[in-house]
Automatic annotation (TrEMBL):
The lineage of its organism: Bacteria, Pseudomonadati, Pseudomonadota, Betaproteobacteria, Burkholderiales. Coiled coil: none annotated. Keywords: Membrane, Transmembrane, Transmembrane helix. Residues 250-382 form the GGDEF domain. SMART domains: GGDEF. It catalyses: 2 GTP = 3',3'-c-di-GMP + 2 diphosphate. This is diguanylate cyclase. The chain crosses the membrane at residues 64-84, 96-114, 120-139, 151-171, 191-208. Its EC number is 2.7.7.65. It is an enzyme of class 2 (transferase). CDD domains: GGDEF (cd01949). GO terms for molecular function: diguanylate cyclase activity.
């Protein structure tokens, strides 16, 4: 593939991506990272197309080349910035914009001094550094990153080094470098640019799909209002402790609690206020627990707490501490300062328990607390001792 064909392929590929992105999530409030990535692809498409036009002789090269490279530099830089935006660094423009301006100025100066050697060196180093910045964004949070993200980071870094090395080798060895001729270097450089464009495009789309799948899987086990495990998530976490309860060892406690009179909040102030109250009270409750404890929202205003390695008396103290925290916690809404109380039922997991019997016993203790006047803690009756009958 000659240079003109390669440049034209890059231009058409980016134009096709731009056309697809125009209709992808074409709604108000699209993510900032997606918007930056869309602009990046448009800059690159315009730059490569202008280079193709200049190479064909339809426009003076002295005019087309600096503008084209400036657009390409901006596109690759903005693409790296979009990756940093996705990685949680929204202020990347404060660094990228001045560095991009310096890079463009350096390229124009190199092009005026030496239109062959220094120009190739500057273009290669600038593009390589921009691609490497994108790979660094993908490598952020390496330990928790998916295998796809790690692959994209490593592949992007390798291609960035290939892109950057071409200009250095051409300047250091104008006639070639050992067995590697300048023509081979040019071919490798073009292939690296083309693969970087493909990897960036497909990598972005695959990462978006992977993140969406992860978010959907998270929503299956997490309550969106309180950011606590929902019923399914709580029972998934409870399962191994149910199995351990069948073996001798430290007990595990379960606490159910229900907010008293919560219906009047929704009726008086509306459901948004009710959601705000639930979220604030959930945060207040979490502050009373250990890192190993688990608070979950089962349904409505009924919550459950898993207390590993905790006996009945210790669980009673935890529940009482949480009851007091809920009682003093005031939640300010748009219309009033809301205060609530909660009733608690406490039990421990028994070897013969199933999820049904465990929750039924804790619920019976909770209902006893409600019947006794609410805003109190009740312990489920202890298991009846086993008796042996002689025959």
């Amino acid at each position: 593939m000659d240079s003109t064909t390669m440049v034209l392929a890059l231009a058409l590929g980016n134009l096709a991506l731009c056309a697809a992105l125009f209709f992808f999530e074409h709604v108000d409030g699209r993510p900032a990272a997606l918007s930056a990535w869309g602009w990046a692809r448009q800059y690159q498409a315009a730059g490569w197309m202008l280079l193709a036009i200049g190479a064909s002789g339809a426009m003076p090269e002295q005019l087309a080349l600096p503008v084209a490279y400036a657009l390409v530099f901006a596109g690759v830089t903005w693409e790296a910035g979009a990756l940093w935006e996705r990685a949680g660094r929204p202020r990347w423009r404060r660094v990228a914009a001045p560095l991009l301006g310096l890079a463009i100025a350096a390229f124009i100066l190199c092009n005026l001094v030496d239109p062959i050697g220094l120009r190739a060196l500057a273009a290669s180093l600038i593009l390589g550094a921009a691609y490497l910045a994108g790979a660094a964004a993908l490598a952020r949070g390496w330990r928790s990153a998916s295998m796809l993200q790690r692959f994209l980071a490593v592949a992007g870094a390798v291609l960035a080094l290939v892109v950057g090395a071409r200009g250095v080798l051409v300047l250091a060895a104008p006639s070639g470098w050992g067995w590697m001729s300048n023509d081979m270097l040019r071919q490798l450089h073009g292939a690296a640019l083309y693969l970087s464009a493909l990897l960036g495009a497909f990598g972005w789309l695959l990462l978006g799909r992977e993140r969406l799948q992860g978010e959907l899987a998270r929503l299956e086990v997490v309550d969106p209002v309180t950011d606590l495990p929902n019923r399914r998530g709580f029972f998934q976490a409870l399962a191994p402790w149910m199995a351990l309860a069948r073996r001798p060892g430290q007990p595990t406690a379960i606490v159910l609690f229900d907010l008293d009179g919560f219906k009047r909040i929704n009726d008086s102030y509306g459901h948004p206020a009710g959601d705000a109250v639930l979220a604030a009270l959930a945060d207040a409750c979490k502050r009373q627990l250990r890192d190993s404890d688990l608070l979950g929202r089962l349904v409505g205003v009924e919550f459950a707490i898993l207390l590993p390695r905790t006996g009945a008396q210790e669980a009673l103290m935890v529940a009482e501490r949480m009851r007091a925290a809920v009682e003093v916690q005031g939640v300010k809404t748009e219309r009033a300062l809301v205060k609530l109380t909660a009733s608690f039922g406490v039990t421990t997991i028994r070897p013969e328990d199933s999820n049904v019997t465990l929750m039924a016993r804790a619920d019976a203790a909770l209902r006893a607390a409600k019947a006794a006047g609410r805003n109190r803690v009740e312990l489920a009756p202890a298991a009846a001792p086993l008796t042996l009958h002689e025959e």
